[in-house]
Specification:
Elements (H helix, E strand, L loop, with lengths): L11 E6 L3 H18 L16 E9 L2 E15 L2 E9 L9 H14 L5 E7 L3 H6 L2 E9 L2 E8 L14 E4 L4
């Protein structure tokens, strides 16, 4: 008997900065799953020097309204005064179909940077995700190749992202099916 995985997915997700050790470990494990195992972009791990300064952000599934599992992540860092970058956006495979988690993480990423004095927010986006970013008010700067994979260097339109003062508080997001 085959079960519909989507029928067992939490209807609500907590979107916030990773504040607990298990959340940071879950974000690292999810990145490994997506970028090493699924996509094969990296041979052994995707960790780099940016992880030492980056703020990890997460989407957490909930169980009885309590955080249960890291199902999405992205990291942000300030590369120069006012110039922020987002990278390593990943959503667990079963949760990609519920919609919205990638967009919510992007909203948290840019809003958090805006709350910290961001004047520019950049990302290198895999080509299959360019349409999502364009819908979220990002603009293509140029096409580049990173780690042997085509990417788009994109820039966020900051007025579309209100400043978030406390990313650790975050918000609840309901899943969209379909």
């Amino acid at each position: 008997m085959k079960h519909d995985v989507a029928a067992f997915i939490s209807p609500e997700f907590l979107i916030r900065s990773a504040t607990e050790v298990w959340e940071m470990a879950g974000a690292a494990a999810l990145r490994h799953q997506v970028f090493v195992r699924e996509q094969g972009i990296f041979a052994h791990h995707d960790r780099d020097q940016i992880d030492q300064i980056a703020l990890p952000l997460v989407a957490l599934s909930t169980l009885a309204a309590d955080p249960a599992e890291v199902v999405g992540t992205v990291r942000i860092h300030e590369a120069a005064p006012g110039v922020w970058w987002g990278s390593r956006l990943a959503v667990a495979e079963p949760y990609r179909r519920v919609g919205r988690l990638g967009a919510e993480l992007i909203r948290l990423a840019v809003g958090t940077a805006n709350g910290r004095g961001c004047t520019e927010f950049h990302a290198h986006v895999q080509m299959q995700n360019v349409t999502l970013f364009r819908r979220l008010h990002w603009h293509l700067v140029e096409e580049v190749t990173l780690h042997g994979v085509p990417h788009a260097h994109m820039l966020a339109s900051l007025p579309h992202y209100p400043a978030i003062a406390d990313a650790a508080t975050g918000w609840m997001a309901r899943a969209r099916r379909g």
